[in-house]
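Re: the 310-residue chain
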Amino acid sequence: MIDVAAAKDIILKNTENFGSEEVPFLKSVGRVLKENIYADRPFPPFNRVAMDGVAIVYHEFNNGTREFPIAGIQAAGSEQETMHNAAHCYEVMTGASLPKNTDTVVRYEDVEIKNGMAKIRVSTINKGQNIHKKGTDQEEGSILIQQNTIISPAEIGIIATVGKSTVKVAKTPKVIVISTGNELVEVSEKPLDHQIRRSNVYTLVSLLEKINIPAETAHLTDDKKTLKEKIRQYLVDFDALLFSGAVSKGKYDFLPEVLEELGVRKEFHRVSQRPGKPFWFGSTLTTTKKRNRLKILLFLLFLEIQFQPM
């Protein structure tokens, strides 16, 4: 029997890279990013107005001007306007491009607008205030999201911002979760007094779904010949096999013996944890399409996200 730390170490050393694939960015939440995401332009991409108000030339205010004729309005999403007279101002909206030839934004709360004139009612302002300068967040070409990041809704927003409709993510293994035992019946069936419904297999499937790994399911009876025939094919068809049951010391716990006969190498059997002491882990290298692929097999009575030591 080995302890939990040793078991984890062995499992982590027996992992495989299944490659990558391109998926629509909205389908990538929870997946592992396999490329860096770069800024396709500076962020923000222009001098961005950060407060509704009026844009002025600070030099004019500093020289004592407090009333400015309004030359126009700069709306968010509209092409950048140009102010031709430094003694004038532009009304500007949050998110808009700062009009050319202006350098300071005074918020509406500090301005009185009447008859086409904007009168600044505060005695002091700072040059460049209320402006989000071009490129101050990120320069063009800078890395916004590092490869191997697990994609969350926050990353989705960044991916959309840089215009990537698809992203490269790690491929997930093809997994099958297999229950064993003559005492098990389907969820929809009414069990006899000596039977129980299959449940552990669906717990495992749900845990895999939480990390975006789809899984198929199957059930095998406690018959050695059947186990061997089915598992031989599963080893060809799937990347990872998870079993619930048949690895303890019972007379019908044939899995360790069957797996040895099929060339599966035992990495460990029995872990000092509760539940799940008779935890069996093994691997085998097979050649598929002239490539070595590592088959990881986890055989257990019950699986939790974290191992729990005894």
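Residues 224-237 form the longest helix (14 residues).
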